[in-house]
Specification:
Blueprint lengths: L10 E8 L5 E8 L5 E7 L6 E3 L5 E3 L2 H11 L7 H16 L5 E3 H15 L1 H11 L5 H12 L4 H7 L1
Parallel strand pairs: 4-6
Antiparallel strand pairs: 1-2, 2-3, 4-5
Function: Negatively regulates transcription of bacterial ribonucleotide reductase nrd genes and operons by binding to NrdR-boxes.
GO molecular function, one term: ATP binding
Pfam families: ATP-cone, Zn_ribbon_NrdR
């Protein structure tokens, strides 16, 4: 594993333990050249997923991009990091278990919306505003009115 501080490839594992939900192995490492300490995570990957964008372009699935999107929606919200990581791992498992190597960006967006709805209402609306491309305050009002009427995000996507 390459040291993030000096780029040296000679690093040593000092401690390994499973994460809270046992979905990954957390490894504390030390660089033998500069002495820098850092953490890496090792996860099971069932298959290499490809995301099909709305434009038709295909890109490799990036768990870190998914994670950044979720954490952006949850910024300054009081949700435990373990719950967030469990949600992200659950989304990845759902995508991998679909049986197809290609997944659409819409599928990913729907899974994220489902997960956020169970974690935090504000983050759910924040993510929806970007995912559904809200352009005016009326878009928010309509979305919140539909939520208030009990209409789920999954049904709303089917109406488009």
């Amino acid at each position: 594993m390459r040291c993030p501080y000096c780029g040296n490839e000679d690093t040593q594992v000092k401690d390994s333990r499973p994460t809270e939900d046992s979905s990954a192995i957390r490894r504390r490492r030390i660089c033998n050249a500069c002495g820098g300490r850092f953490t890496t995570f090792e996860r099971v990957q069932l298959r290499d997923l490809v995301v099909v964008k709305k434009s038709g372009r295909k890109v490799p699935f990036d768990r870190e991009k998914l994670s950044r999107s979720v954490y952006t929606a949850l910024r300054k919200r009081a949700v435990e990091p373990e719950r967030i990581e469990r949600m992200i791992s659950g989304i990845v498992r759902q995508l991998e278990s679909l049986g197809d190597v290609e997944v659409t960006s819409d599928q990913i967006g729907e899974y994220v919306m489902e997960g956020l709805k169970g974690l935090d209402d504000v983050a759910f609306v924040r993510f929806a505003s970007v995912y559904k491309n809200f352009s005016a305050a009326d878009d928010f009002r309509s979305f919140l009115a539909e939520l208030g009427n009990g209409k789920s995000a999954r049904h709303e996507a089917d109406d488009d």
